[in-house]
Here is the input.
Amino acid sequence: MTSRASILALRSFWDEFRENWIAVGALVVVLLIVLAALAAPLITPQDPYDLANLSLMDARRPPGYVGFGGYVHVLGTDAQGRDLYSAILYGLRISLQISLTAGVIALALGAVLGAGAAFVGGRVEAIIMRIVDLQLSFPAVLIALVLAATIGQGRTGLVFALVAAQYAYFARTAHGAASAERGKEYVEAALSIPLPSRTVVLRHILPNCMSPLIVVATIQIASAISLEATLSFLGLGLPPTEPSLGMLISEGFQYMLSGRYWISMYPGIALVILIVAVNLVGDQLRDQLNPRLKR
Amino acid sequence: MLLFVAQRVLQAIAVMLVVSLLVFVGVYAIGNPVDVMIGPDATQQMRDQLIERYGFDRPLYEQYFSFLWRLLHGDLGTSLVFNMPVLQLMSSRLPATLELTLAAVIGATVIGVPLGIYAGYRPESPLSRLIMSLSILGFSVPTFWIGLVLIFIFAVSLGWLPAGGRGDTVDIFGSQWSFLTLSGLQHLLLPALNLSLFKMALMIRLARAGTREAMLSDTVKYARGLGQSEWTVLRHHVFWLISIPLVTVFGLELGTTLAFAVVTETIFSWPGLGKLIIDSIFMLDRPVMIAYLVVVAFVFVTINLVIDIVYVALDPRLRKASS
Here is the structure.
């Protein structure tokens, strides 16, 4: 495709996307959240990871309290005296970083495994896809839980657990799409030139499997965010010194019973808005990229 | 049919073997259990005795085979923390998880399927749109967060329902059940609701999609042509047409609910299997972790097996294909 044609295709894609104002709203929300997370150090009054900034005298104060820092804690403070608004934005940063990293690795791994299996065929395909099926019959939460517990805490462990829990969804999708592409003439043509199989899989087959993969990716990133929060909530995620959203919620939970709702409630609302928005964008993408619904 | 069943059973056994190996090796990588069992001031001699008693000094494969051997004899080992047989420990926790899971899945089906059928029958009505938006929320919002909100609203703010625990239980054949007492039911309501919302969203979506398809089918056109009332059409035709996928999902969801129960049980301090596994992860109680995972895997494999067989029994086309 020439660049001009791809710009036109992109424009018509956007025109169709624009018709669904809920999806557009959701996309704007996602972009705003990502932007806010990126710019967190610039738009927050406090670095919540710098222990020198925290004062236990400021701990568990309700929204609107003016602390020793001399500024208003718009959303209150948590049990360590962190400004919740700052902690939420920094937490979003971590949650997004981890789930996006995990999502991209899982996408790459799953796509290559699935498309490769479909291309090679035979026993290799059977073995790979059986493993994938076996894994898909267990819920991702359970797999991630066990792995996070086994590998231990920390970013690498968490990303690994998420990747292992999610790659199978991508492999399944890529396998389905690639099996359909495998028999097409352009693949035969590329093979008869002859191009090496690696090139055919990566440069010819995979690009044509992208639309279902993109749809699965949005949904899986939403579920990675949710999984990461769940693991952190259960205490199997990152250490409490660098709280992601799940950890903030988990720490606030014990104070909720005494009515200090804001410590858990506001990070939770941020999390829910993010996940719902990503899912809504994903829903619209699915409708647009699904050939069966095309008029 | 017999051949098909035998084939599937063999496959299930192979899967169980692989899973047990993976679980054993995986869990083996966690920490050093000896440190959990004795204090730091224990002498080297005490350590050695302990290591020998539990066989931690033997090669990994030997430990695995002796584990497998004991497993086949129904011996899941002894909990390092509770100092009682794991089987006994798990069966004392099982009723709690079972009643929670069943309440959640049955509740989700009984409420979700009619809502979904309605949304599929009248896709444009405002009520249907409301139902569908709620189901998107049910899908997106993490289970643990819904649990917190439920506790905050119904336990902390309104004070209507308890925030955690199991309430009074009734003893039946040596196991404790909550659902037979008023206090037990009150304690059960919030966690069951929490656990069921995700399933409910799923049931609504499936029932809606199935109904929309079924309404266009020849069966329904013919039934309407005969002059049957809309209620009869829905009740006697649409309902049965959509039931097969719903049965599958019902079965699969029983399994996944077991896994999700981990989260709900932790939030509501519900003393079931899920809380047990989380506690044992933190306390490095290796035998309990291994046993839990093997049992859950066994449940999953069995459910999948039963579904495969029921499917073939329900659908004549599959029966022909498999024989």
About this structure: The mean pLDDT of chain A is 80. The beta strands of chain A are 65-66, 72-73. The radius of gyration of chain A is 22 Å.
